[in-house]
Amino acid sequence: MKREILITSDGSTTINLPELNEQYHSKNGSINESYHVFINCGLKQVVSDKVSILEIGFGTGLNSFITYLEGKREIDYVGVEAYPVTAEEVEKMNFISVLKAEKEAAVFQKMHTVSWEEKHQISKTFSLTKRKQFIENIDDKDAFDLIYFDAFGARVQPQLWTVEIFQKMFNSLKENGVLVTYSAKGSVRRAMQEVGLTVERLPGPPGKREMLRATKISKQ
Predict the structure, then answer these.
(1) pLDDT of residue 220
(2) What pTM, to 2 d.p., does this model score?
(3) What is the mean pLDDT of residues 163-191?
(4) Which residues on adjacent β-strands are paired with residue 212?
(5) Whether the Cβ atoms of residue 145 and residue 51 lie closer than 8 Å to each other
(6) Residue 36 has pLDDT above 80, yes or no
(7) pLDDT tens sequence across 128-168
(8) According to the model, what pLDDT value does residue 72 have?
(9) All domains of the chain, ordered by start, with CATH?
(10) DSSP assignments along the chain, one per residue
């Protein structure tokens, strides 16, 4: 399948799949979307000195890198990706320059060059485990404070936005854990609610009216 580099509205890059009319990030701004959905509505809402994060769709590493930049606490990050991007595609991503993060360029490169299926200490406070895994095979239990659900959209991969998948997400979250996603589809919200998640509609990133945040409310 053809893959091409696209410049989004905030000047940052993404990978475009023209045959599917789908991108790894929003055409309305890769970095803007990442900050709005995953940092502001996700990471900043988790009150803990140590945060364990599961990312569904590690992709270009943008969410991981911005989380590293904004973490300011101990973070244990697990990124799941079935089809890793190539080294050539990583080289074409301009996140470092747009974020003005030249001093951290080596960290971004390290995130992509460390081996899969092993935990790596990227910095004193940030560890990364990359798992080459299909979402359907995730079986973590009560492991994460926060999930970044950043899979391709339901129009392209509807099988990733089902009750069965969100049951896996529910099981993976600790009590009071949070899941955030750019999606606001009614079918997605209902699937989340069916497995027991408490769902909020929030203002979306540029180009989207709404997004969803779901919480695994403690039974106590």
Answers:
(1) 58
(2) 0.96
(3) 97
(4) 181, 201
(5) yes
(6) yes
(7) 999 999 999 999 999 999 999 999 999 999 999 999 999 99
(8) 87
(9) 31-88+101-215 (3.40.50.150)
(10) ---EEEE-TTS-EEEEETTTTEESS-TT-HHHHIIIIIIITTGGG---SEEEEEEE--TTSHHHHHHHHH--SEEEEEEE-SSPPPHHHHHH--HHHHTT-GGGHHHHHHHHHSPTTSEEE-SSSEEEEEE---GGG----S-EEEEEE-PPPTTT-GGGSSHHHHHHHHHHEEEEEEEEES---HHHHHHHHHTT-EEEEEE-STT-SEEEEEE-----
Rg (Cα) of the chain, in Å, rounded?
Answer: 16
Are 33 and 211 within 8 A, CB to CB? no
Q: Which residue has the tokens 């095979």?
A: 137
Structure tokens at 169: 């997400």
Contact (CB, 8 A) for 6 and 30: no
Task: List pLDDT tens digits, range 47-85.
Answer: 999 999 999 999 999 999 999 999 889 999 999 999 999
> Which one, of 121, 150, 154, lies nearest residue 59 by Cα?
150
Evaluate whether 182 touches 55 at the Cβ level (below 8 Å): no
Judge whether 26 and 33 are in contact, CB under 8 Å. yes
